[in-house]
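Target protein
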Amino acid sequence: MTVPIGHWLALSAVLFSIGAVGVLLRRNLIVVLMAIEIMLNAVNVAFVALSRHLQSMDGQVIVFFVMTVAAAEAAVGLAIILAVFAQRRTLNADELGRLRG
């Protein structure tokens, strides 16, 4: 018994919504970074579900590239967050809004 495509797409939409709410409402930069990762994983779920439904490997190839970008984003994002924390001693996005010399 297979799970219908609608269930997978609904799961993807819920995950993407959770990630979007996390990006919009949270002020901690690490939580925002994790929310972006949730959004990327939601897109991956949709790509794999549609790839399986259409019996094409194109979606799964795209997921490989999205995972590569997500890994690079996490590495660069954490490096930037560490640099900002070393300079400002805070990870609150509201306090970092003013980027003065």
